[in-house]
Amino acid sequence: MSFIFQNLTLKAFSAQIDRRASSRKSKVNGTAEEAEDFAADAKALLKIPPASFPFADLNITSSTPLTVLFTGATGFLGAYLLRDLLTRTSPQIKVIAHIRALDTAIAFKRIIQPC
After folding, report:
1. Pairing relation of β-strands 93-98 and 66-71?
2. How would you classify the pairing of strands 25-28 and 66-71?
3. Which pLDDT value is given to residue 89?
4. Widest pairwise Cα distance in the chain
């Protein structure tokens, strides 16, 4: 983060990134130290992609109640997805909706207001 404040223009910041990317050693505050690779874990994950990505099975026939943490309920698509979840009768679904609001009453109004 210090490089952002030390290089006040986009050109200077870009040049600093290029210097750090081209060398494993860098000068920070007058001392040489190993440049930290913040994307190392992402690079490693790219080398071993999964064979497939599992899909959620929403046609569950179990009688065990489900709990769903739902974000985006006040958005256009989220309103339809929330309605679908709440109108399902089997299995019983408890929805925990994450809504930004000053209090629970305002959050509830945001969910039930028509689009």
Report:
1. parallel
2. unpaired
3. 76
4. 66
Question: Each residue of 90-113: pLDDT tens digit?
Answer: 778 889 999 999 999 999 999 888
Q: Report the alpha-carbon distance of residue 16 to residue 3 in Å, rounded.
A: 8
CB atoms within 10 A of CB 82: 19
Q: What is the pLDDT of residues 4-36, one digit of tens each?
A: 778 788 888 888 888 877 775 545 554 545 556
Nearest to 115 by CA among 77, 85, 70, 87: 77
What phi and psi, each to the nearest 5 degrees, are found at residue 41? -65, -40
CA distances to 14, 54, 65 from 68, rounded to whole Å, are 43, 17, 10
Domain ranges of the chain: 2-47, 66-112
Residue 19 has φ and ψ, to the nearest 5°, of -60, -45
